[in-house]
Structures are given as C-alpha cells and as structure tokens.
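Example 5.3 — TetR/AcrR family transcriptional regulator
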Amino acid sequence: MARRGSYAKGIAKRGEILTTALELVAQRGFRRTSIKDIADAVGLTQAGLLHYFDSKDELWVEILRRRDEIDLAQDWHASDPAALLAAIVRHNTEVPGLVQMFVNLSAAAATDPEHPAHEYFRERYERNRREFTSDFRQMQENGRLRADVDPEHLASVLLAISDGMQIQWLYDPTRDMAEHVELVARLAIAQAVPSD
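Solution (predicted structure tokens):
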C-alpha cells in the first residue's frame, strides 16, 4: 500500500515540476531558465529534480508536451484548422519563452534522430498534418476549400508558415504571426460566390 502512495506522490511531484517549469520558461525564457531555477521553485535539488526525468533534454520535451496538453484543452472557437492555428499562434505571443524553447528544440536539437526531442517533434508534426488534412478534406467536401488545393499540402504549408513566423517573431516581435497564417488560409479557402 505504501508503494502505491509513493507512486502517486511521484506522479504528483512530476506534474508539479512540469507546471512550474512551464510557468518559469514562459515568464523568463528558455535560455534564462535553468534546472537549478526549476529545482529551487519546487523545493528539490537539481539531482532530485532530474530523478523524475531521464535527462535535462527529456524535461524540456515534457514541458512542451504539457504545453500541448494545455493548448489542446482550450476552447479556441475556431471555424477551421487555419483559424485554430492562427488562434494558437496569437496565444504564443503571450508566452515568448515557450516559443523560444519550441524553436530552439525543433530547429536545432530535435533534427538529430538521437536527441530525446526528435520523436516528440516527428510525432507532433505527423499528428498535426493528419488532423489538419482530415479537417481540410471535410471543408473541401463542404465546398469551403478550393477543389484544386491539396489538403495535405495545405496542412504542411500552414505548419511551416506558423513555425517560420515564430522564428521571425523572435527576431522582431512586431511581426504578426497569425496574420501570415490567415493570409495563406484566405488564399486556399473558397468563399461562396453567387453566380450571375
């Protein structure tokens, strides 16, 4: 019985670490948040904190997973996948540290198949492409997406624009990331035009 309680406490502590780390990275930034900062905030030593994760890199990946869980639980009031992506990108302007973490891991470290973040990003892109493609196909069937647009290509392009605009936004926060996602969506989404 004590073993189960210990296991439950471990799960709870891991959750506390992820919640705290998510907040710290969002507030301070990826580069300005250390393992020591997170450990101090949850009342652990650095070694104690890393007991809950295989490595520092795994902690960063789990922070991104937690962010995804929170984002997916939101009610974004989006009418289509492009509007959903634009809403999430707009929200990202409120958490620049998480954008910095995402960009740093996705564009550099995670491209190495041996890095702990590699599989996370591969699965994330695959899932997002699959879900967006399915939604775009449905829109096409309903006449809301141009017939000459490949839904899978559109999904890939919108994800690429979203990620690319995040990089530009980190250099120049005056760039409106969501506006660029919406621009590409407007080019693809059919508007009902009455025939004369």
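Remark. The radius of gyration is 20 Å.
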